[in-house]
Design goal:
By secondary structure, the protein is mainly beta. The protein is built from 3 helices and 14 strands.
Length: 286
Amino acid sequence: MTLTSKLWLVVLLLSCHFCLAQDNSGKKYLLQYKMQAGETIVTRVEHFAETRTTMAEHDESSRSQTTSQKVWEITAVDAEGNMTFDYRIDSVRLSQSIGDSEPQIYDSSKDSEVPDMFRPVAETVGKTLATISINQQGQVLNRDKELQTPQLGMGDLTIPLPNYAIAVGERWSVPREMRVKLENGEYKKIKVRELYTLDKVATGVATIRIVTQPLTPVNDPAVEAQLIQQLSKGEIRFDMDRGRLLSKRLDWSEEVVGFRGPDTSLRYDGKFIEELQDMQRTASRP
């Protein structure tokens, strides 16, 4: 084959690829949770946070790190695809330190002694925290008890999915409300939205970008300081064929100046990573 023929072949292949891309650009995808009774879905969750506070010439920092194994045991799936599962944490490793002090550490897999600060968490390990029913869009239909966990911008247990097919580049959002405490002791509601964008689809995996945006105007640094831990952004990978989360990563890196006067500042850095570990089949319950 001559050089000219090779060049024409490359041009032809690139042209075909461009045509295929153009043909597929408007394709729409329906994102849905899909699970089967008897499955056990396990994810590994890591959460790291560091807070630095400056008050005049005094600096203080604190760090926390949590690694846990989250389990969904699917107990039932009805004719409409609604899924019921028992939710529990099978293991947890907790670490927390303030300033230059030695970190307090607890690992449920090997430690018999539990520091008092971690006792409430340690007492929940291995126990069913809630029995939850969701539909295929990830909306909670029923739960037998509320999960007593702080809202730190990490989202709910499920990803809210649209109930219609969407194309790459399309967005959907979920409204939320947060409460902040004012200096006079009263509480104020701040409206925010979780904005999701279908970023790309490849080999059956949807990549979704997420960002939490305040809708209520905030001009008070004291209020901003309470919000920065809850305003996150990141990326989700969702298996469209098997209908479940593959991974979720959220990041924080924010600073507020003047939250308690002109010589004060608060900086918050953090990350949250959740990854699918394995799936197992267990005997279906009657």
